[in-house]
Hints:
This protein has a single domain, classed as Fic-like fold, CATH 1.10.3290. The protein is built from 4 helices and 2 strands, in the order ααββαα. It has helices spanning 21-41, 50-61, 103-116, 125-142, and strands spanning 76-77, 83-84. Strand 1 (76-77) and strand 2 (83-84) form a beta hairpin. Helix 1 packs across helix 2 (50-61) and helix 3 (103-116) packs antiparallel against helix 4 (125-142). The model has no long low-confidence stretch (mean pLDDT 91).
Amino acid sequence: MPGYTLADSSTLKNKLGLTDPDQLDQLEAELVAGRIAEIEAQPIAGNFDAEHLKAIHQHLFQDVYEWAGHTRDERVKLSDGAVASEPILAKAEGQPFLVGPAIPNALDALGEKLREADNLRGMPRDVFAERAADVMIDLNDIHPFREGKLKS
């Protein structure tokens, strides 16, 4: 995890100064929950393209990580001088996610797919559930952002 972790390599660098991964997980969950409530009250406008998803990610994780709002293919210079980037990332089973340079186009294509489907509005519940699940599968396969949690 180049640049993302503290010297112990099990704790992500964070704006909170926390060095214990369990404490970080707990506080991250609390802070992100508050940011989710803000988005529910006042959604972030956009077209669900790369820029819109980056804005959502930035809003959610702004209190915790310097790389909030950056896709994992972007090189982010952190306050300690390290450069964080993770263009190649694989699932626990070893199956790779989309390679970094392809992330922006894939996100834009997913946004276009959603716009063509009127952002899944007005669909019968069963059709919506199936289409929304497909979108989430596509988004997970792209895996555009560095996850906050290191342990499984």
